[in-house]
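quick q for whoever's on today - can somebody do inverse folding on this one?? i tried earlier but teh output was garbage lol. tokens:
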């Protein structure tokens, strides 16, 4: 039993480790590697809670560790990515001399601040046990980390112009911090009953998401996140009892 209670926390620390590695890749502008390590961290983030419930060893320490690890993997990393993208929009790099444009690029960390507030609030919000209110930080992190990959791998002049424009990037940063903390209920992706009727919204979302990811690859990632938000709003407005 003594060993079992440490397994979920060890998995959480591996999530943190992945986030730290991702930071180093973002600094080097190796965004694809950063994306993969953040994705691995998010995968581990799911399993720490799974094993805590399986072994019945959930604890306040595990809850705090989980948020602290997510703060790096899903908070610091996306903020740093946006900082790098803003620098590039000004034709600067992380080693450039400090200028007003360099200072304005720090506003990319609005995402990190919004993530921090979200994670702290999540720990004390009893309404989010089975579903979410506001976008979860891992989903937001994947959205932000996919943007430089879209610029590099998707051949579209319009998208390139949008995602290399400082004003657009600032708007995305502010919108990101808002949607993380907005009072918008998002439907749960957990499958509790193995019936189509009880999970039709989830199955529909997963089917469309798979189609987007297969056909559009990196561009499909932000579209899946946006589709999740849009579908949740529609569900809240027209279908939710």
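ok took a stab at it. sequence:
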């Amino acid at each position: 039993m003594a060993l079992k209670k440490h397994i979920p926390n060890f998995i959480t620390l591996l999530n943190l480790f992945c986030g730290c590695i991702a930071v180093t890749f973002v600094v080097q502008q190796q965004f694809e590697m950063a994306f993969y390590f953040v994705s691995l961290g998010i995968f581990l983030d799911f399993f720490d809670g799974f094993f805590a419930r399986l072994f019945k060893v959930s604890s306040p320490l595990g809850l705090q560790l989980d948020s602290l690890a997510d703060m790096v993997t899903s908070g610091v990393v996306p903020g740093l990515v946006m900082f790098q993208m803003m620098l590039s929009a000004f034709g600067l790099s992380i080693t450039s001399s400090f200028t007003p444009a360099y200072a304005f690029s720090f506003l990319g960390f609005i995402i990190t601040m919004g993530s921090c507030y979200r994670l702290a609030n999540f720990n004390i919000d009893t309404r989010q046990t089975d579903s979410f209110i506001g976008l979860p930080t891992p989903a937001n992190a994947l959205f932000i980390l996919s943007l430089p990959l879209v610029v590099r791998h998707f051949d579209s002049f319009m998208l390139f112009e949008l995602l290399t424009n400082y004003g657009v990037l600032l708007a995305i940063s502010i919108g990101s911090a808002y949607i993380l903390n907005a009072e918008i209920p998002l439907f749960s992706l957990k499958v509790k009953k193995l019936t189509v009727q009880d999970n039709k919204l989830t199955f529909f979302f997963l089917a469309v998401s798979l189609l987007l990811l297969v056909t559009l690859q990196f561009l499909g990632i932000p579209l899946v996140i946006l589709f999740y938000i849009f579908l949740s709003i529609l569900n809240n407005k027209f279908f939710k009892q």
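fwiw The chain has two domains: 4-186, 187-241. also The longest strand covers residues 132-133. so keep that in mind when u check it
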